[in-house]
Amino acid sequence: MNPRSLALSILLYGASTPALAQITITPPPEVSALMAACTPTEAQPDAIVAGLRERGWSEPDTAGRRPALTALTAAHLWSFLPDHPAEAQIGLLGQLTDAVEGALQENGAFLTLGNEQALILWDGDSLSCLWAGPETGTVDTLAVQLGGPFPESPSTVTRRLSQRVEAGGRNWRRQMAVARTPAEALPPDVASAAAIDAARLDRSPE
Fold first, then answer.
1. Does residue 144 have a pLDDT over 90?
2. What is the pLDDT of residues 145-183, one digit of tens each?
3. How far is CA 61 from CA 47, 65, 67, 112, in A?
4. How far apart are CA 47 and CA 78, in angstroms?
5. Calculated CA dihedral for residues 133, 44, 58, 192, nearest 10 degrees
């Protein structure tokens, strides 16, 4: 290529680059990022927690820890106490939050980002990842993927999918679920905490 042609090609390429430079990549919503990080059977809790920290999550301060943990627990009453009616679930919120706090002392991590909460619990190769936060279209999308859109309801609505996975020469059980609880159906103490949507992923070897 002669010098004049080379200069022209550089000029034309340079003229096209500003449009490319304007392209931005939007990071995935936190609930999606957490569920994706917890999905692989080889996912390790230390790496999951490290990923949360890299995205700005941190432990709540002493004054905010119990309210935040209560808000997450309330958003997950449907998963912690699936066989209890709503009134019974609400009545057991305090005891259940104590139990979650106790589990955290054994093998767990609890972090927050704004008005979102994430709870990671593990026991050997078993892992549970829980998220709670404000209503978001991301949870609607996950609901469709797990079984169908949420119906209109004055109470908690859920969608879930269970899988049996073979990986690393072992059989695993994995379940993902999402839920939405209207603020008026939440316990009064946490109705204003904005934790309306919830998601969790559990995996364990058979």
1. yes
2. 999 999 999 999 999 999 998 888 889 999 999 999 999
3. 22, 6, 11, 10
4. 28
5. 20
